[in-house]
Amino acid sequence: MTVNSLLELTIAPEAVDGAVAHIDRVLEATRAFEGCLGVEVIVDVTDPAHIVLLEKWTTLERDDAYRAFRATPEGASDLGTILAGPPTLTRYLVVE
User: Fold this and answer.
1) Which terminus of the chain has a lower count of CB atoms within 10 Å, N or C?
2) Which ranges carry the ABM domain (predicted)?
3) Sign of the CA dihedral with 78 first, then 51, 20, and 47 last
4) With 90 as the cut, is the pLDDT of residue 96 above it?
């Protein structure tokens, strides 16, 4: 069953201007990961420091595998360097 994952980010004030470009670089590995059906980056129209990544995965298992990959030295990214705090992940099963 398809899974949509929403990763909410709060960007540090000094990193807001280059945040989307930075995130796009990090997302190259995400988009190439097996089971990823796509990722959209959306920016809050009233608060550009609030960014949400809308990820679509083929299965919960593929999303889990991706999260496990990002927790390894090989999969680690530097996304945390532009964040004001920890991201919030919420995952949803798509009902068909």
Assistant:
1) C
2) 7-74
3) negative
4) no
